Amino acid sequence: MQLYERYYEIQNLTLFTEYKLKFALSNFYFNELSMDPMFGSDVTLRTNPDKLNVPENVTVQALTSTRAAVYWMQETELCDGYL
């Protein structure tokens, strides 16, 4: 799927399912110079059995005109009653 937005929400995820996502980066110059998009490494996410695992505090930092870094906090989990 090709998007021009900075945000996309994936809906209707199945509980306790692993998803592999691959992101590609391109811009006006990629098209003008007939360059292939730049693909990042696969991102693997898995939904929890009782609720969806949602990353928190997602931020994107533009590194160059062709690179961006995505950061997020993992969900906090309780273990034996302790945080």
Characterise the protein shown here.
- With 83 residues, the protein is mostly beta strands.
- Helices cover 6% and strands 30% of the residues.
- It is built from 1 helix and 6 strands; from the N terminus they run E-E-H-E-E-E-E.
- Strand 5 and strand 6 form a beta hairpin.
- The chain is elongated, with a radius of gyration of 16 Å.
- One of its GO terms (molecular function) is kinase activity.
SSE blueprint:
Elements: E1 18-21, E2 24-25, H1 28-32, E3 38-39, E4 43-46, E5 56-62, E6 68-73
* Percent in strands: 25-35%
Instruction: Flag low-confidence runs.
Output: 79-83
Determine the N-to-C terminus distance: 39 Å
Mean pLDDT: 76
SSE order, as H and E?
EEHEEEE
Which bin fits the share of residues in helices?
A: under 10%
Give the number of helices: 1
> Could you tell me the radius of gyration in angstroms?
16 Å
Shape: elongated
Major beta sheet, specifics? 2 strands, antiparallel
Would you report the number of β strands?
6
